[in-house]
Amino acid sequence: MRMIRAVLSVAFRQNMMAMKPAGRGAPLMLFHIETGGCGGCGMELRALASAPYDLGGAGFGLANTPAGADMLLVSGPLTRMMAPVLQAAWEAMPDPKGIICMGDCALDGGVFGENYATLGGLERRVTIDLRLPGCPPTPTDVLAGLASLLRGDVQDDLPPA
Amino acid sequence: MDALSLIRGGEPTATPWRFRLDELAWRDLVEALRADPLPFCGLWCDGTDVHALFLVRDEPLAVTLALEDGRYPALSPARAASTLYERAIYDLYGAEAMWARDVRPLFDHEVWPCSSPLAARPGVSEARSGLAVFQPSERFATAAGAVDGWGPASGGVSPPLYVAFTQSRGLVGQAESQSGYAHRGMALRWRGSRVEDGCRLSGRVVAGQSVAHQSAFCMAVEQACGQTVGEQAGLARVALMEMERVLHHLYTLADMAGRAQAPLVAAHCMMLRETMLEQISPVTGSRLLMDCCRPGGVRLPEAERLGAVCESLAGIGQAAHPALLELWESFPGLVARLKGLGVTRAEDLARVGLEGLVARAAGQDCDTRRALALYEGLWRYTAGRQYGSAADRALLLLDEVAESLSQLARLAPRIGDAMPDREALSLPDAEGMAMVEGPWGRVAYWVRLQEGRLAQVFCHTPAAAALLLFEESVKDQPVEDLPLVACSLGVNAAALDG
Known about the structure:
The complex is a heterodimer of chains A (about 160) and B (about 500).
Chain A: H1 2-17, E1 28-34, H2 40-48, E2 60-62, E3 71-75, H3 83-92, E4 98-102, H4 104-108, E5 130-132, H5 139-150
Parallel strand pairs in A: 1-2, 1-3, 3-4, 4-5
Helix pairs in contact in A: 2-5
Chain B: H1 3-8, E1 11-12, E2 18-21, H2 23-33, E3 40-45, E4 49-56, E5 59-66, E6 71-73, H3 82-93, E7 96-98, E8 114-115, E9 123-124, H4 138-141, E10 146-150, E11 162-168, E12 171-178, H5 186-190, H6 195-202, H7 210-225, H8 231-259, H9 263-284, E13 293-294, E14 297-298, H10 306-330, H11 334-338, H12 346-352, H13 357-360, H14 390-415, E15 431-438, E16 441-450, E17 453-460, H15 463-473, H16 482-489, H17 493-497
Parallel strand pairs in B: 2-5, 6-7
Antiparallel strand pairs in B: 1-2, 3-4, 4-5, 8-9, 10-11, 11-12, 13-14, 15-16, 16-17
Helix pairs in contact in B: 6-7, 7-8, 8-9, 8-14, 8-16, 9-10, 10-14
């Protein structure tokens, strides 16, 4: 009985929070790559991918490999050691593809500006298709930003980085 | 002579708990430490000296040695955990640890534009392009079995770390990690910064443990100033640390449950966490409790509601906890999957010097909260099951959630709606050190103030010891459980790399 109640409570809360996709059949797959930050954006992404949020119901999925992804979701300042890892992930993604920057660090380095170990953020280095500022941005902010991708608020023709 | 006597026999410094040794006395100390169980907390360098930090009944005791021709005798022959510190010191300052157990690079994998970036005169280096090459130890290179790897980009949400491992018939043989992917140069960023900016940085060493880091940092600064915060600010910090522990533990439990194919349990942990965050975030202004502490006090947008939130959280949590515990214990296959997984052996814990939750789940009696005056009247905790497996750690996480909720309930009437006071700090040229019990164990900060700014900061977390323990505990475990073992031991590249 306890197990049934547990299942029902999760299902009920998820439906309350769901944001359904705007007409896209398959989910938009995101490959997350943490490029060297404190891990806060990753924690919020995990929260978004869990109950009571509904990332899947909103039309997004998290890919296990870059080859299975539509968009690269980057968080954290870009450390010099992660730069070639990021490049390799990008090159492994099929076209068309795009880049989402989650958090201040991924955008402009945040509190981790350029030094011997980090290159700062991706702004002014690559074309960013979706900016999600914040330290870290909340799951609600991230979901609203991602939903704008499906509404076509951002450009359709995603240029390479 | 024992290690303690050797240290206290050194030349006193302006800091009453730090003594200076010459090289011969330092070598004697290393020899004495081979047989002496004096708890080792960390090793750091400032370009001129190396400093080793030990603990005597939870009180700091530091020892200093001047570098001679950029070298010093290693502590790693006597303290395994010193290995990672020695490798870090070489990468950052170029100071060489003589007779060190491991001299492989830790952070500098030849992708930086300079070598020894924190040295007085950094070296010129031609940064290599391309992926960092894994450099195995001799033991790993000669191990049998096919070599495989995990990370640094696996699509997960954790900070980047690479783990190479040999495997045979689906089981891990040897495992060895390569770090540095999340190295942001914290020591250089702290150097010369204002204490407020340094505090902001300390809150971003590792997410989910921000209050512990910022509290320890602020307390170290306040100790250097010879000042303490008022009672209300102290209570507010304790409340924030216990809220953080509850949130962190629920997140970790969800992570473990998710990796152990128990998504329903994971969902319940995250839902309870979100319910609590609805109460917490308006008061703290941050879901991850970042920037809630500042030197001299706390920084809360709605500080007057803190007591009410403590009471509310205790009510929500205590109502939900029994059902969560029952679900954890009754979910098909979950406990069975974790039982016997990633078992930590007493000799390994002693060798790497790991304290905190992982050690408590293996029967060790260690918790910094017991020694902190801030927790007077709140401390009641006693350890639960102690066999050292992932299952025991999970149950201890659940147990500690309940204990922290009880502490919040006891704190609520003491905090009430009083506004926490704030001390104005005068910043002398001095050193300070403080520690708190973070979600995974002891978090300690040593700061040196000079001309009103931070001259140097050293941060100790359980991350270094946790990584060493992980490499031991994952042996003979199923390959697919490698991330689950890492998660259950608190392995975190952000905390390690700094």
